């Protein structure tokens, strides 16, 4: 399997592509554009509208996010 590029939270927000992340607490995050979802084993799934709730960890582009990034590369990355 090849190398998977990871992105910072700030890159995900600045570039606006779809990406996912696993939080330190085991919650799964999905973000795209201006909103996202959190799937938390403790509290269930909920909508995220505040980017401050996104973990500052490694984010990985989804297949759709990869297509979005391909449209803007290499101009902004």
Describe the protein's architecture and organization.
With 77 residues, this protein is α+β, with helices and mostly antiparallel strands. 22% of the residues lie in helices and 32% in strands. The chain has 2 helices and 6 strands. It has a 6-stranded antiparallel beta sheet. The longest helix has 10 residues, at 63-72. The relative contact order is 0.26.
Question: Could you write a compact summary of the structure shown?
Answer:
The chain has 77 residues and is an alpha+beta fold. The protein is 22% helix and 32% strand. The chain has helices spanning 9-15, 63-72; strands at 6-7, 19-22, 28-32, 35-40, 44-48, 59-61.
Spatial order of the strands in the main sheet? 1-6-2-3-4-5
Total number of strands: 6
Q: In sequence order, what are the helices and strands, one letter per element?
A: EHEEEEEH
Number of helices: 2
For the residues shown, what is the average pLDDT?
91
Shape field: globular
Into which percentage range does the β-strand content fall?
25-35%
Features:
77 residues; alpha+beta; 6-stranded antiparallel β-sheet; 22% helix; globular
Set out the fold topology.
Layout: E1 6-7, H1 9-15, E2 19-22, E3 28-32, E4 35-40, E5 44-48, E6 59-61, H2 63-72
Antiparallel strand pairs: 1-6, 2-3, 2-6, 3-4, 4-5
């Amino acid at each position: 399997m090849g190398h998977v590029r990871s992105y910072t939270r700030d890159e995900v927000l600045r570039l606006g592509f779809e990406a996912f992340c696993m939080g330190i607490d085991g919650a799964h995050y999905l973000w795209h554009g201006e909103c996202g979802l959190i799937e938390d084993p403790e509290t269930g799934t909920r909508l995220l509208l505040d980017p401050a709730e996104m973990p500052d960890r490694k984010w990985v582009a989804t297949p759709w996010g990869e297509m979005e990034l391909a449209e803007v590369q290499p101009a902004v990355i």
